[in-house]
Amino acid sequence: MERIVSLNEPKLSTAGQESLPPLSIGQWQHRNVLDLDDFSPEEITLVFEIANGMVEVLGRDVKKVPTLRGKTIAIMFYEPSTRTRASFELAAKYLGADTVSLDAARSSVVKGESLIDSLRTLQALEVDTIIIRHPCSGAPYIAVRHLQTRIINAGDGCHAHPSQGLLDLYTIKRQLGDLKGRKVVIIGDILHSRVARSNIWGMRSTGLHVVLCAPRTFIPQGMPEMLDKCGLDHVTIEHNLDHALEGADVVMPLRLQKERQQSGFISSIREYIRLYQVNAERLKKAAPHAIVMHPGPMNEGIEISHDVAYSGSSLIEQQVTNGVAIRMALLYLVAGVKNQ
Questions:
Q1: CATH class of the domain at 163-315
Q2: pLDDT tens profile 126-163
């Protein structure tokens, strides 16, 4: 039987290639993955090393290994999703797990069933891991208080999106190599962005410098004080996009959601485009090797111009591909490792 990771001899083997350096699975301390604020640099490195092996699996004609054979992964989404949901489903199937995918709109939730009751039902069905997306911040944290089944947070309200943060970091590392001292500019609705929050925590562990650039209405009140209190000295705030982009290695606009456009956070779409759209002219202010990323889905013509979204510097589609490898690595570590 082919194995991706041996727990007795912890190294990641790939067919036809040299094995990666030995991996100390003992570095992994997480029963659940809720956010990146408690990830050590060593754990992030471990996820990346395992993901490297998963990339090799994804390059095969038959993208399937029996690593999680006999495991059942439940995917429960209370919000619409394309990239994250499909990515997790493919990750589980490529690792040989059985999957059950539940849409809250077609479940007993519409009859009044609570989140905890729904999750307890899945636990009673003896699923091994539950991947959950929920519109309420903190929902996965509530879940782990009531369940023994392992939980992976696929996005909770405005709070966190840890797998997106990891795949963003992984994409940057594969493209730029050494991350220490690199400048990342995250642009747009920081206030409501779970992607920005998880990236801030993950980038702290990898030595990246983060510039948050947005209108003042899209920066949480008291954020400078919060950053100082939490020791997040790698993060600065800049309201002028032209200044923020100077010398940037990574440029990451965030999606401007329609409800924000209509709720008074910005004066007008035209004004937002004028001041904060990432376009080809503005991108010239970044470093010559700068890469463009976006968590998706994009509003082309608003936060990012079409020519930048599909330019040679854009890694937006590569983020999607890398997301499968990262989520395969997380599923292995959460559902597959037995020494927890």
A1: alpha beta
A2: 999 999 999 999 999 999 999 999 999 999 999 999 99
Report the candidate in 89, 21, 70 with the shortest Cα–Cα distance to residue 50: 21
Residue pair 47/33 in contact (Cβ under 8 Å)? The answer is: no
Strand (E) positions, 123-226? 129-134, 150-156, 183-187, 209-213
Task: Provide the 8-state DSSP code for 22.
Answer: P
Q: Are 252 and 293 in contact (CB under 8 A)?
A: yes
State whether residue 76 is helix, strand or coil.
Answer: strand
State how far the Cα of 77 lies from the Cα of 89, in Å rounded to an integer. 12
pTM: 0.91
Nearest CA-CA partner of 285 in 207, 211, 181, 215 = 211
291 secondary structure, DSSP code: E
Homologous superfamily in CATH for domain 25-161+321-336 = Aspartate/ornithine carbamoyltransferase (3.40.50.1370)
Q: Which residue's structure tokens are 């050494």?
A: 178
CB contact at 8 A, 48 and 57: no
